[in-house]
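Input/output pair, single chain:
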Amino acid sequence: MRIAAVSYLNALPLTEGLASCDDVELFEGLPVDVAVRLAEQEADVALMPVAAAALLGDVSFVRGSAIGCRGAVESVLVLAECKPSEITELALDLSSRTSVVLARLVLKARFGVTPKLIGLPSREAIGFVGGTRAAVVIGDPALEVGDRFPLKLDLGAEWFAWTGLPFVFAAWCTYPQRLSREQEGLLHHARELGLGARASIAARFAETSSLPKERLEHYLRESIRYEFGVDEQAGLQRFFDEAASAGFLPKTLVRLLDVERSRPSLPPSLDGILARGAEGKRLSVAEGERLFHEASLFDLGLAADAVRLRKHPHGVVTYIVDRNVNYTNVCTTSCRFCAFYRPVGHSEGYVLSREVLGAKLQEVVDAGGVQILLQGGLNPELPLTWYEDTFRWMKSTYGLGLHALSPEEILHLAELEKLPVRTVLERLRAAGLDSVPGGGAEILVDRVRRHIAKAKCRSDEWLGVMRTAHQMGLRSSCTMMYGTVDTPRERILHLAKLRELQDETGGFTAFFCWDYQYEKGVRLAPGENGTLTYLRTQAIGRLMLDNVDHVGASWVTQGPAVGQVALRFGADDFGSVMFEENVVSSAGTTFRMNAGTMEERIHAAGFKAARRNVRYDWLTTPV
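Output:
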């Protein structure tokens, strides 16, 4: 049995007896890492945040055990130097989605505030506090805070004062077919052993902590409740209902494993899922996956088009006049799906000279263009100073916007220069960087990433670069390249990760998706693709990403005619006038359009056309 569990002190009474069990593989980590283990099918059962269970949508709760409270909890706090009603910014402890959602609900319901959100690790979140800036701090770091802050808002106590119900932070979650009755019994037995060992757990923890044993034992015996009975289930359902009403979580019912085994609940109707998606209600991973497998293409198109119409009621489709410049094809990543890159030292490797770059940029200026999309390989011979000098020259000479360097390239520079990502981004922005493209995301599930490109950054690293960029005020697009070894569920998990980061930062301007462009000779065979799969995927992306304003049609890979159809499957943007494109064209895809042809296509699809910039401001009057 593969078990994943949070590693905080308050979880030890439920997990203490499991590590030594035969036929048990125990992973312990931060709540967010535990949730990913279950979501990506690397665990059979997980002691994880309940909000993550709601986001997945198809898990059941094991009866009897949970981590919760009935009043003050001590380890889930909002810290501030001001009154709760004066909080303007809130640093979020990124390790637990449940505490983040609870904090947002409590601050809105109890104090009428909706602060700006800033995602930070626990220690950095504590350092963020000052003035009207507050922080959510959870777990062991929260226990060590002491009386350092004038305001220490206990979210367990606030929830109980608001609802009169217990709160459940984490519980054992699994899929109904994954856990046998005998394995469930093992979890119950471990709980009984752990509850009896709370004194020794506290004593052992005190040896490596600044907290006295007596305080820790009181915390484990009085502050934390390990029951998951009727009252706790009612409190959890209230939390799910409040969070769904606020748009933070999908609509969720508390389903118990033993009940699901004997009398599985009927899934919601497809029509109901489509209607909620069309209305902008949040869908779970399970609902998104079900739409992919079961909904008709026509119904998906109608629902996605309803979202487009609600978000963009003026009947305008935008496009941008820019150029995609690939400044180097030298790359060390060796992605199995890429026909564009050349390894270091290859005779066909290149770095564009300023003369060549200048000619390309002048063509964009002459055509009334506003931006350069600048991306390339991970070339170890190009230091950060090369990018800074190039950016300054491009800006001073041509005055174009710089939509430049994917997260993968930024991480490469940070590693090459031994600098933090934030420092690299700060230097690039000072040199002229305006926004960050969403390239290199592929599928943000590490199983897929390991298979298609072992040297590529992990999904959390890609998201971390985007988080940092957004916090600095840089905007970015988000993307998905599917159709390699990914499954429909992994595509939906990818969308859910983008949606969670967008909840936190609001930094994604638009979403684009396309299928893997296969070329004979590359080291990765194509998976599921084609026009119908593309339209289905884009429509589901539009329904899942309820907090992203724009969706772009990928006519570069699908062709202009399919791009027109995509405007009725959720897209409100026709992307870029492509002077050139080198990556997908290396795999044989060579579609091109100029501005006039693009506007004709938009008009023929029944829309007005307007040019835009990277932030989707209209630069021309829609016609």
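The CA atoms of residues 71 and 160 lie 5 Å apart. The radius of gyration is 25 Å.
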